[in-house]
Amino acid sequence: MWLPLCLRSQTACRGSYAAALLKCWRHWENGSLLFSHSAGPAALTTSKALLFRKHGDPSKVVQLEDVDLPPIGAKDVLVKMLAAPINPSDINMIQGTYAILPDLPAVGGNEGVAQIVEVGGQVTSLQTGDWVIPKDAGLGTWRTVAVLAEDDVISLPNDIPLLSAATLGVNPCTAFRMLSDFEDLKPGDCVIQNAANSGVGQAVIQIAAARGISTINVVRDRPEFTQLSDRLKAMGGTHVIKEEALRRPEMKELFKTCPKPKLALNGVGGKSATELLRHLQYGGSMVTYGGMAKQPVTVPVSALIFKDVKVRGFWVTQWKRDHSSDGKAFRAMLDELCCLIQQGKLTAPACTEVGLQDYSKALDTAMQPFTSAKQVLIM
Length: 379
What we know:
Radius of gyration: 22 Å
Shape: globular
Largest sheet: 7 strands, mixed
GO molecular function: enoyl-[acyl-carrier-protein] reductase (NADPH) activity
Domain Enoyl reductase (ER): 56-377
Enzyme class: oxidoreductase
Number of helices: 13
GO cellular component, one term: mitochondrion
Strand content: 15-25%
Main location: mitochondrion
């Protein structure tokens, strides 16, 4: 949920924020960022946050400002944000084109990991030092500290890599659910996907490999295709091919070494999605989770009539909301994903760590085509 913001001018807040930082030193211990107990969390009165007051070009509407922290309620937690990525959905939300939009002004960022500094008197599921991530979109993670409701976050083990924790809540969860909820996939089965080098695509490769499922990974042609192919195969990808190969006879040779896919995962749309459909086995499913090409999905009539393919959509935010009343399914999914991380079977995508003060550069880089690394703001 979006919390109302109490705003001051940057000039008025600068002194109190600097004083808070001086009183609240931090250190690394076992890979976790902790606050000095001697200073105490009470020293924190403001947060640095990336705010947008209107929708538009992120480079023009996002500003680093000081935000007053509200009092910590009985069921609230005070958290120090550790790291938060910049995802396409974050950009779309700022631009005003996403499916859900916050009340303005709003803090950017839907994903990230934080550490609990203080808990309210009636908080039962969390304790000081825990790592937490948002349960839902719209929490506003691009800030240094925040007061959040206990029910808005969920804990993670703090022995996993920081970047894995920061990027866990969206792309790996999307990959996990699509591999679990649409087809009964077993070891030896095959999945085909476009946008294979995206965050979702890399998670699909690794989770599928851990389950003994082959993947055909489609990427756009580029000068460094060989290096990209080698990297995706090192993650566990079975085959890596260019978009153009989907329409060529060489696909017949490929299917001599692996079965026709039961499941196609579409993050692009347009012609790419149509070509994925052509290679599905009878009765298979194509699940669309993104549309980077900004083109509609066209389904050949023959695929519906003669192959009885199923065309579905998936949005992880809706899945989380549909399962919010219980929470057991989300908890079980995070536990399984964290187990894969701890076993070295699931790693974060390539990331570039950027200080919060350098947000403009990070936003510009995140919006460039063929971006090879996810921009992650380090607080």
